[in-house]
Amino acid sequence: MPSLNTINHNLNDACQLLQTVSPSPAADASRLLCFVLDCNSAHLIAWPEKELTPQQAAGFAELLKRRLIGEPIAYITGAREFWSLPLKVNQDVLIPRPETETLVEFVVDRFAERDGIKTADLGTGSGAIACALATERPQWDIVATDISHAALQIARSNANMLKLDNIRFCQGNWFEAIAGDVFDLIISNPPYVADDDHHLAEGDVRFEPELALTAGAQGLDAIQILTRQAGDYLTADGWLIVEHGYDQRSAVQDCFLQGGFEEIVQLTDLASLARVTAGRSPGSQEQAQKEPAW
Predict the structure, then answer these.
(1) pLDDT in tens, 48-67
(2) I need a labelling partner for 289 at 20 to 30 A (CA). Which of 56, 136, 169, 217 fits?
(3) Widest CA span of the chain, in angstroms?
(4) What distances in angstroms separate CA 110 from CA 96, 104, 135, 188, one per listed residue?
């Protein structure tokens, strides 16, 4: 009689169960089993008839229970890849998402010719953006801030794990953490979900920190703070770059216009949804006429 405790059998059973809670049941089952066995997916393919030990089977069953109640894979395994970097995550930080790479890509490409750029990543969370930029631009001076001490612990741990020495971490609420300083770039993936948004009760978001998700009745409170105050912390030709919701394009553009920003650019993600808005600092036009465009 064939064993019921092989890699293949466990994967098939898990995949069937996960179909009710996950859009990618096979991938989820594979990632969880790889985590338990401390292997990669190639191992599962190469050894489908290999039997799990009782301890491995029990461990897999426990992780499966957590996924079946909707807990994100990233929190179960404590890891998430972003910008091809391995990052630690837990429920003190948002799970880094692919659309945030749109922001990183814009910054890396747009400011490629400038060395020594001083950058602030406000609301850094896991440190995903700061670590990605520090990896791509080791000559930049980056300050990463968050109001949450627990989040900063994760961000520091990620920077240490990646051996990045050009990030400084500061705790504080938005501009409080960088008072008295000025930057060439201020970057943020702030909270931008409306307080009563029904998505807060659905999917992975149920497990993520509300502090990092919600921002008032329209989801614009944090973005309004950033656009109103960033000009005081930017150099004459500095830029503010902010991620936002796919349905907030017009509202965020208005925030940038009201903040006096110029050369406003809105960027779309791979799904062609506007997810990032950038603008040059108020009063930068005179400086722009003296210097070549970036």
Answers:
(1) 999 999 999 999 999 999 99
(2) 136
(3) 81
(4) 22, 10, 16, 16
